[in-house]
Amino acid sequence: MLYREAGQFKSTYAADQQIFPIRQDRIAVTLLLLVAFIGVPLFANEYWLSAILVPFLIFALAALGLNILTGYAGQLSLGTAAFMAVGAFMAYNFVLRMPWLGVIPSFILAGLCASAVGIVFGLPSLRIKGFYLAVATLACQFFVLWAIQRIGWFTNNSSTGVITAQTIEILGHTFDTPQSKYLLTLGIVAVLALLAKNLMRSETGRAFMAVRDMDVAASVIGIPMMKTKLLAFAISSFYCGVAGAMYAYTYLGTVEPEAFTLDLSFRILFMIIIGGVGSILGSFLGAAFITLLPIFLNVFFGALSHTFGLDISHAIVSNIELMIFGGLIIFFLIVEPHGLARLWQIAKEKLRLWPFPH
Amino acid sequence: MNVSFFFEVLIGGLLAGVMYSLVALGFVLIYKASGVFNFAQGAMVFLAALTFVSLLERGVNFWLALGVTLAVMVVLGMAIERVVLRPLVNQPPITLFMATIGLTFVLEGLSQAVWGSQPHGLELGIADVPMQWLADSTGMFISQFDLIASGVAAVLVAALALFFQYTRVGRALRAVADDHQAALAVGIPLKNIWAIVWAVAGFVALVAGMLWGARNGVQYALTFIALKALPVLILGGFESILGAIVGGLIIGASEKLAEVYLGPMVGGGIESWFAYVIALLFLLVRPQGLFGEKIIDRV
């Protein structure tokens, strides 16, 4: 009843090409951003901010990066965690060795370093695709982690390989409370998400999708294959790199190379499968789902053992969690290959008609 | 350079490669028959080994435990075909690949939820000691266990080859591998064939799991060997049983040689990625692998 575009006429091309062409959508997004930027820091407690919302935002950014590569450009990657590791450790080194640079430029440079690594390991994509490419990105995953562990420069010769992120200071303001860290993360994620949304609506994004849907046809109509694929790798790794840098700086504080194992890569791949492959919104939905599921399960099993007096050990819960993850992946691939984002879209279409049948 | 040491490393590597081949074999079987790249093979190896060793520890007779585990693997293979593969028929291969990643998590969670996640030792009655007569005569230390393992692998491959070549089911499997539609047209029941292939892959997983388990203990790390089988497949080609063997030998040998001779120069530990980099370089030169079929998704 409320959600419909009847009566909203577009008189300019610019109005027609907006990201959210429907007024109700614009209002909803504005409200959401207001709540996220003002409401949440005011009312959320420390646990919610630093243990749920910050990792959610960071994973959403990493999932967004992988979604650009896998969902839009159609190149499967299992090396997401490696790109995040490059971002985290390069950000550490930039802040450490060039302190005059400032934190934000360091993050950007770290992202660019991740891009460079992404381009190198994206080169095989010019000749192969599908799971052959997955093996190539697997090589990246193992090689990068090995290099960070073995080469002392990356960890500033820390004997255990653990680095402690420096305090974030931007323009004289120190970000050390959970609220400020959350706001910084949210700000970066919001800007990058907006950029990604616009990029995917532009010529570049359309070229990515053409390559994904049929690469031969794409090259016939004049899309440069090499440039497009490598650009997809570069942009995707940039996002993952920035996400990795924030993983170290605003979430964990101290990280070791082992934090970026293949498991993390899979976890992010799961986010985009569950959230929706080839959808910006899907990256956020998937990240929220995967971040919240373990917490929900813990609470659920806790309540279960409390009411029935069963003793369910932590190991069992984590194994059941694994099974549920895997089961959900298979379920989504079979039932709804476009994930939660598609469900949301269907809901919106239904809402437009509601309560009338046509 | 010490020649006898070189050969010792080389043979050690080749024998380790046999173990990789065993895992790769499971991949090849499924890929040949259904075109599915089964990422869950490692989890199947883990599940088989864990079930077997847990039954043994509960005092079940060796052969009975073997039979029960085999039955579990066969039932599992059929269940996977029914629940995961059949609804996904005609989906792009990459979707199936991701589904098997999901399957990996299900199997890992399942096996640990049922049997617990502590590592087990597995005793097959074969001592992992160097053979004295060889050490005396040539000065090389080669484990008896590795030799027996490669003997088992050879028997397994020979048995599979005979099975594929001379039995009715084997011929049907090859027909399905060549062309699904043509196989259906001449009346080969595709669904049964897939169930059989997954069951055979489960059997191969059991053998691989027993040997790896006896060598390194049955623990979660076992699932990582599946990842090592990927470069083996790239090298040998996805459709070739011979390729899986040769690829495994090459990867095993070059990995060990690199670790011993190149490792010290760069700080060691290169075993973790060397195989992948070989595979990566190989992909650029010959993407179909040594023995793979020429048709490949080239860009």
Account of the 3D structure:
- The complex is a heterodimer of chains A (358) and B (299).
- Chain A is mainly α.
- The mean pLDDT of chain A is 86.
- Chain A has a domain at 20-260.
- Chain A contains 14 helices and four strands.
- Chain B has 299 residues and is mostly helical.
- Chain B is globular.
- Classes of the chains: A mainly alpha (358), B mainly alpha (299).
- The interface between A and B is large, with 46 and 48 residues.
Shape call of chain B:
globular
Secondary structure: number of strands of chain A: 4
Average pLDDT reading of chain B: 79
Largest sheet of chain B: none
Question: How many helices of chain B in DSSP terms?
Answer: 13
Notable traits:
heterodimer, A: 358 residues, mainly alpha, two-stranded antiparallel ribbon, 14 helices, 4 strands, B: 299 residues, 74% helix
In short, what is this structure?
The complex is a heterodimer of chains A (358) and B (299). Chain A has 358 residues and is mostly helical.
Task: Compile the SSE list and pairings.
The complex is a heterodimer of chains A (358) and B (299).
Chain A: H1 13-16, H2 23-43, H3 46-72, H4 80-97, H5 103-122, H6 131-150, E1 163-164, E2 168-170, E3 173-175, H7 178-201, H8 203-213, H9 215-220, H10 225-252, E4 254-255, H11 262-275, H12 280-308, H13 314-335, H14 339-353
Antiparallel strand pairs in A: 1-4, 2-3
Chain B: H1 3-34, H2 41-57, H3 62-85, H4 93-115, H5 132-138, H6 144-166, H7 168-178, H8 180-185, H9 190-216, H10 225-236, H11 241-261, H12 263-266, H13 271-285
Helix pairs in contact in B: 1-6, 1-7, 1-9, 1-10, 1-11, 2-3, 2-4, 2-9, 3-9, 6-7, 7-9, 10-11, 10-13, 11-13
